[in-house]
Amino acid sequence: MPNIRFRGAMTALITPFVNTAVDWKAYDDLVEWQVEQGIHGVVACGTTGESPTLTKDEHKSIVERTVAVVKGRVPVIAGTGSYSTDLSIETTLFAQNAGADAALVVTPYYNKPTQDGLFAHFKAIHDATNIPILIYNIPGRSVVDMTNDTMVRLAELPRIAGVKDATGQLDRPTLIKARVKDDFCLISGDDGSAPGYLAQGGHGVISVISNLAPRDSAAMQDAWVAGDLKTFAALRDKLAPLCRATMIETSPAPVKYGAARMGLCRDEVRLPLVPATANARAVMDEAMEKAGLISAGSGTIVRAHG
Asked: Nearest Cα to 20, choosing from 222, 273, 283?
């Protein structure tokens, strides 16, 4: 495998809240636990972290605290994108100066730029900063879809380091890989298709389920790299119900319910999101039992195994 800087299982961290405020202790403990469990990287202030509802000060503090807790043990990727190029530059510069290892920049949402507009947006952020940038392509949330041709153009810039691909189109990694530099990181943005993404030439996943199961998520990625297909398949099948359950309703409500069951934080999201429904909770309970995260009928977690 080429020298891929961002690979394996990287957790799209939830942001714990208590009475609508950020629960800093729970957040610090979550980040430390992720590293102890062997996760390959963490993403702060992504969609799963409810970044649209964070204040500017909260966003900055979360990035700073993540870097401080991790202490260089794994890469820290900071979500810095928005529908404003100027604001994206400002936030990316802050992440760079705070010591983040990369910036995750989403395709601008709501204002629907053309492909030329997408190129100009990312190039402007690239040229104004000095940090590796991962493109976050998620048409289901941002409406626009960056084409392979546009991504290949951007990959020619020295610090466009890769893509978080949340399109669900499993032919994309193979098609893009043939046209970009060897160290361009191809990262799945979807837990359910992450195993298939590896088989199509991908290098890892930015994961929601690894908030709950970091060790198994990392081990599945490591098994693929090692060519241990038996272990890979066993972990894939063990985690598959959790992949479906965490997306049964708008994320991160289901995964935050799971985190509350495990004692990691409270089951609290910020409006306009609302907590998981009774049906989603039941589905999560079943999936977490199958993944060995909780015992049947109990809220107890065996953290060493998750």
From this structure: 273
Please, which residues bridge with residue 135 across strands? 105, 163
Q: What local confidence, expressed as pLDDT, does residue 3 receive? A: 67
β-pairing, 76-79 vs 102-106, is: parallel
* 130 Cβ contact partners less than 8 Å away, ≥ 6 residues apart: 96, 159
Angle made by CA atoms 146, 148, 150, in degrees to the nearest 5: 60
Say if pTM beats, i.e. exceeds, 0.85: yes
Instruction: Name the token pair of 138.
Output: 């998620």
CB 272 within 8 A of CB 249: no
Terminal Cα distance for the chain, rounded: 27
> Which strand (E) or helix (H) includes residue 42?
strand 41-44
Give the mean model confidence (pLDDT) for residues 148-162.
Answer: 98
Burial call 279-305: b when 16+ CB within 10 Å, e when fewer: ebbebbbebbeebebbeeeeeebeeee
Residue 256: which pLDDT band, with cuts at 50, 70 and 90?
very high
Q: Of these residues, 164, 197, 256, 257, which one is catalytic?
A: 164
Q: Which residue, among 261, 254, 260, has the nearest Cα to 283 in the 3D structure? A: 254
Percentage helix, strand, coil for the chain under 3-state DSSP, each rounded to 5: 45, 15, 40
Q: Which helix (H) or strand (E) holds 96?
A: helix 85-98
Q: Annotated catalytic, 60?
A: no
- Strand 204-207 vs strand 21-22: parallel, antiparallel, or unpaired? unpaired
> In the chain, what's the furthest Cα-to-Cα distance?
54
Token pair for 186: 């191809």
- At 4 the pLDDT is 81
- Which of the residues 112, 123, 136, 238 is marked catalytic? 136
Q: Which two tokens stand for residue 21?
A: 């405020």
